[in-house]
Amino acid sequence: MRSMTRIGIAAALLGGCVLPAATVRAEDWKTEHDAGWNAYKAGRLEEAETQLKAAETDARSFGESDPRLATTLDHLAWVFSAEGKNAEAKAFAKAALAIRKKIHGEAHADVADSLNTLAGVLDAEGSVAEAEPIYAEYLAVAEKLDGPEHPNVAAALDNLAAVDHVLGERDKAEALYKRALAIREKTAGAESIDLAATLHNLGVLYFDEKKFEVAEPLLDRALAIRKKALKPDHPDVAASLEVLGWLHAAEGKADAESLLKQALALYEADLGKDHPHAARCCSELSRVCKNLDEAEAHSKRAVGILEHAGDPGQLATALDDYAAVLRKIGHDEDAEKIEARAETLRESAKSPATPKN
């Protein structure tokens, strides 16, 4: 931080010392920036945007290549991404990365942070094909800075594996997940909460490949770690229960409905009854409920939530599930109309970007 300069006798005659304008701006920037970033971490997005935009104005007075401007822009990218303002988020992330590369070159911790931010913003909006090479670049920088077995490298491997999975590069994703798993078990231990995410994601990969006997122990282990390390209603615990419920449904096990109901209750407690995760869980429940009235109620609820929140692909899937229930209860004509709407939604949602699973 720049040291403060004291003013002599003239300032004393005015009743005290006066700070130079540049120092005042630096302090203003730090106050606004820290308030905005803390608000973001607390989930107060409107406050975060207001404070960080004020910090951006101050930071620009330091020059367009100042590291404080890059930090503010990087953090604004996360805020705008969380708000669903994807175009603005990408612009902030790209600007921050450009400044940091100009200052530091290619291999620096700040550059790695900006690569992760840009990839995360692209990933969050569903542009996984664009995110993939950025995650790969981030991995390369992390390996150069931290060595091949650092936890930062494991995190980079996890992120790259996740987008490769979505892109259908399953062999590549499997190898990356396994490498991340080995690093985490060596550096953090077998009960690390960070390990749970890798176990969960690798289990989901095997589930998608219908390798149920390989997927289940990984998913069971992830759930056990999360239950031990997290609060009981944490959404990650719900996610583990949900995927295990759906796996058990695929295997024809009787407890599938119970697991999905547990997951739904946790999503409702932590995220609210109208969250898209709750809708997805309701839709899955409609497929496994033995009571058809209950199945219909779950499917209707899922559609109702996703009419207002969620992407067209999610809504189309929920509509298909609703149609399937209607066919079970003999309402074939209504089911046909709903299936047609689901197909129309899928056609309208088609784009060059690959949607997430």
Automatic annotation (TrEMBL):
Record's subcellular location: Cytoplasm, Cytoskeleton
GO function terms (MF aspect): kinesin binding
Signal peptide residue numbers: 1-26
Biological process terms in GO annotation: microtubule-based movement
One Pfam family per UniProt: TPR_12
TPR repeat windows: 196-229
Keywords: Coiled coil, Cytoplasm, Cytoskeleton, Microtubule, Motor protein, Repeat, Signal, TPR repeat
Transmembrane segments: none
Chief localization: cytoplasm
InterPro entries named among the record's database cross-references: Kinesin_light, TPR-like_helical_dom_sf, TPR_rpt
GO cellular component: cytoplasm; kinesin complex; microtubule
Family of the protein in this entry: Belongs to the kinesin light chain family.
Protein name as catalogued: Uncharacterized protein
